[in-house]
Amino acid sequence: MASADFPANAFYEPLGEDGAFASTVATAGPWSPDFQHAGPVAALMGRAFERHEPAPGTRVARVTLEILGPVPVAELRVTARTVRPGRRITLLEAEMTHEGRPVARASAWRIAAAPAALEPTANAPAPPPLPDLGPDARTRSTAWSGAHVDGYIAAMEWRFTEGSFGRPGPGAVWARTRIPLVAGEAVSPLQRALLLADSASGLGSELDFAKWLVINTDLTVALHRDPSGEWLRMWAALHADPGGSGLVEATLADRDGDLGRVLQTLLVDEAAT
C-alpha cells in the first residue's frame, strides 16, 4: 500500500508503550505542517475502540470525535474505556493526549450486528463508478492555493468526480489511503471510513477561506454497514447561515453502495485581516 515517493511509511509509528504513538509527517493537515488533519486522529481513536475489550458479533456503528484544539504532529497517547457495558449495546470513550494534555476525545456505540436474515434496504442511489482520471487526480487534489499538501492530502489518493478541495462545493470524490494508519498493520474498514470522513468540510465547503475562518469542532460518522474494499466515495455539502453556524453533511459509499453518513459542526467567523 505504501508509495515509494512518499516520505512516511504510515500515519503513526507505535512506540514501546501500549497506546503511545509517534505522528509522522503524513498526519499534517492543510493549514500547517505542525498540526494534524483530524482524519488520522479519528482513525486512531477508532482503532482504540476496535481493540478495547473486543466482543465477537458486535461492530462499531457510530463514532463522534470532539476536537479540543490543534493536534500537534508529535508523540501522542490514546486510551479507551467502557462507559456503559452491555451484551448487545456498549458505549465506549477514548482520549488522546500530548504530554499529558487532552487534545481530542471520542465516543462510540458498539452494537450487536444485525441478524443475517434481515432483508437489506436501499434508499440511496448507487454511486457512480470509480473514475480512471490518471495523473489528473493528484493534480486536482494538490491545487489548493496556500494549503500544505505534502502531509495528509498527499498520503491519500483522490479521484474527484465533482468539485475539488479549495473550490466551491458541494463536491464528490473517490479516495483511498496510500499508507497504513499504524506501521505494520492492515487498515480496517472502520479506520478507512474515519481516515476520509473529516475531509468533508474541505470537499463540500462553499466559503472563501481567504475571507472566512472555518473551524470544525467535531466529527460524527455513523455507518449502517462496514465498508468493503480500499476505495470509498464521499459526497459533501456545507450549510451556513448568518447568526448561526456551519454544518457539513456527507454521504459515504463504496462500490457496493451507500454505507453511512458524516456530520461536522463548524465555527464560521470573519478571517483576521
Automatic annotation (TrEMBL):
<dbReference type="InterPro" id="IPR049450">
    <property type="entry name" value="ACOT8-like_C"/>
</dbReference>
<protein>
    <submittedName>
        <fullName>Thioesterase family protein</fullName>
    </submittedName>
</protein>
<feature type="domain" description="Acyl-CoA thioesterase-like C-terminal">
    <location>
        <begin position="145"/>
        <end position="268"/>
    </location>
</feature>
<feature type="domain" description="Acyl-CoA thioesterase-like N-terminal HotDog">
    <location>
        <begin position="28"/>
        <end position="110"/>
    </location>
</feature>
<dbReference type="InterPro" id="IPR029069">
    <property type="entry name" value="HotDog_dom_sf"/>
</dbReference>
<dbReference type="InterPro" id="IPR042171">
    <property type="entry name" value="Acyl-CoA_hotdog"/>
</dbReference>
<dbReference type="Pfam" id="PF20789">
    <property type="entry name" value="4HBT_3C"/>
</dbReference>
<dbReference type="Pfam" id="PF13622">
    <property type="entry name" value="4HBT_3"/>
</dbReference>
<feature type="region of interest" description="Disordered">
    <location>
        <begin position="119"/>
        <end position="141"/>
    </location>
</feature>
<dbReference type="InterPro" id="IPR049449">
    <property type="entry name" value="TesB_ACOT8-like_N"/>
</dbReference>
